[in-house]
Structures are given as structure tokens and as C-alpha cells.
Design goal:
Distance between the termini: 46 Å
Keywords: Hydrolase
Low-confidence stretches: 106-111
CATH topology of the largest domain: Metallo-beta-lactamase, Chain A
Order of helices and strands: EEEEHEHEEEEEEHEHHHEE
InterPro entries: LACTB2_WH, Metallo-B-lactamas, RibonucZ/Hydroxyglut_hydro, Sec-metab_biosynth-thioest, WH-like_DNA-bd_sf
Structural class: alpha/beta
Strand order of the largest sheet: 1-2-3-4-5-6-7
GO molecular function: hydrolase activity
Number of strands: 14
Protein name: MBL fold metallo-hydrolase
Pfam family, one: WHD_BLACT
Length: 284
Amino acid sequence: MIEDAPYGRLEALEPGIARLLAHNPSAFTFTGTQSFIVGTDRVAVIDPGPDEPAHVDALVAAVDERELVAIVCTHTHRDHSPAARPLAQRTGAPIIGCAPLALETVGPRADAAFDGAYAPDRVLSDGESIDIGGSPLTAVATPGHTSNHLCFAWGDALFTGDHVMGWSTTVVIPPDGDMADYMASLDKLRARDDRIYYPAHGPAVTNPAQYVRHLMGHRMQRERQILRLVGDEPQGIPEIVAGAYPGLDPRLRGAAGASVLAHLLDLQRRGLADVEEDRWTATR
């Protein structure tokens, strides 16, 4: 996959799968959100992306004369689902996929905020499918990044949204983001036999099983690091971030702090850490 393909240009990836790159690059979206068009005569759009007129125009042009049977969303962050509404209005296609979810968080978010206007015509549960030209597109529930996150399997390809990204680890932001759920969802993917992952950000993952094991190992290593830091003396999250992420890009401190908090809350539930007046300590 070409990471810097021109914005708005339909790029064929393999038979029946193409992508459009939205013009919303950032420290959290990499080169932008990748919208995928799946199918041949009858197609679905997966993660239509931000409500940017040029991107919506490009999606309509990419569908062309084919029947758009579904507009599919993995989750409801604003870099993924808002274009579903104008695309549905212009094509008449139903919005299908994750459940509605919009939360207000205290302070600025490190990633995209929720799409409060998302209103699906149909919500898919784990294992439910829709027919795309005779081939099922099947929901795989993967909570963790958000509680409503779904991946979608089409043949031996898996569209992973933000659960697994090809360029960075996934942000897990409490209270909705949950580290235990995220790890369980990774383990669920590890047990599958997908050939390739197509994330919403970054290049395709061509070694899925190995990559998922790497992601799980990275998170377990981070957990051990956090436990060591709070085992020496009580620490606040900014101190833990400074110790765990030396040389971190200042733009990513909020995301790192959220990830640390997600780990700490999971450790607290397991009886391995506790907090008093915003100072965390290891309990054993």
C-alpha cells in the first residue's frame, strides 16, 4: 500500500478492495483516514471518514454506477463516521455497523472526538453479516479503543479500523476506552487466521498473527514498566509519562497519559495498583 497516495484518488489494492484517502492528516490520523470500497457490482464503503465535501464527492465518484448497499462504520470518532450522513443522503444507502456512542470527556481529547450525530439504520452484533455482492461482510466485535468498535471480515481480509493500525499503537482513552477489553480483543484477533489487515490509518498489515503478538507483547511490557515506576514511590500520571516515554513528542503527551491511565485502571481492578490523591502505587 502506498502511504502517501494522492488524496481523493481511488486506489485498487486487490480484486474487490480499493481505498480513498481523506485529506485529514494529523499526529493521530497519520496521512489521513482510509475509506475502503469493498465489492464489485454491489459495494460497501467502510469508514466513510470525516464530513469533508471533497472526500464525500470522491466517494460518490468511486462508487460510480455501482449499487452502494451499505455505508459501514467501525466506530464513531469524528475521523471515521461523519461522512456517512451526506453519503447516505446522496446515494440512498443505509448506514450499518457500530452502535451509536458519543461521550463528553473532561479536558481536551488526544484523538478525534465522538460523532454525536451518528444514527445507523442497522447495528451489527458480533458475527452478524451483510451481503456484499454474494460475499458476507461480517462484524467482529473488538471493544477497547472504544466500547462500540467493530472490525469487519471480508473473505480472508480484515478491516481493523483503529483497533489495529499499520503505523502506530492504538490510543485507549478512559472512561470509554478500556485496556482489558482492548487486550481481550487483540487475543480474539490472534486466534483468527486472517491473511491481511486493512487499518483505517497506515499501511496494510501483511503478517497479522505476528503483528498482533507484537502489539500484545508491547502492552504487557508497558504494564511492567508502569508497575516498576509506581513500585519505587507514589507517582502521578505526568511523572509516569515522563519516565515511560522519554523524548516524547509534546503533541502526544495527552495520548500517552490516557494510555498510562488505562493501564493503571486495569492494574487497579486486578489488585496490582492503587491510587490516593492522584498518586499511584503498586500494591504488591
